[in-house]
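Recap from last week: sequence in, structure out.
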Amino acid sequence: MRILITGSAGMLGHDVTGAAQDAGHDVIALAHSDLDITDRDAVGSVLAGAGAEVVVNCAAWTDVDGAEQTPDAAHAVNGAGAGNVAHAAAQSGAWTIHVSTDYVFDGTKRTPYVESDPVAPISAYGRSKLEGELAVREAATGRHTTVRSSWLFGTAGPCFPATILRLAAQRDELTVVEDQVGCPTFTGHLARTLIELAAGCDSDRPPVGVLHLAGGGQCSWYELAREIVARSGASCEVKPGRTVDLSRPAPRPAYSVLRTERGARAPALPHWQQGLAEFLATRVPAA
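Predicted structure tokens:
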């Protein structure tokens, strides 16, 4: 199968490209320098000539606080840009797999969010990603899967575990918020499942519409940080903190655990602790 991947130089895009290659697919990997998805004409031209059967859109504006300060730039990528990719994919007969986020929810629930729950983003980033979901749904005319995931971390880019490892090696004490709860998701696990979804597109087996796909289990950022420090062997003490004390530009959902209601055939990812173990195996020498 020929699979085209946008945003291939990003943390998730890097792993999706690797997973597709490992699975033996014919891969067209396009970084931002190869294709700017905000350029509608360029996207149309590239996808028209690519002959891809599936397009996996990993290109995104991921700077949550930056989106709050420059919302137009975030919307151009996450909103209109996502629509450009889905429209061009539909024109060329390709299935679109689009990656979205838990930030489309407001975080007021205390039970896991499923696909049919009402969306209500509270940040510019979340609003830009919701705009992208709607643009993909309109443009892809029933031939798309929008995968909502959360709290991504991986070996190919800046991420929370990498930051904690660095700070724990420099400091005796860290304070990390305990009032945000979600599902940490290892990009290596997510990438392989996205490619498995892509491989089913020739038989119309992927779920049409929204699918929640995040690491199993749940935890707070504080609990995740404690686990990282404990597994790394660092002597740094991790203390619980509050979001309000951070004074970050963008609000975050207090609770954004994702689960699926798509039934037994819907894919599931391993527990977040397994993902963390695989991540740390590449960063922390074995004892």
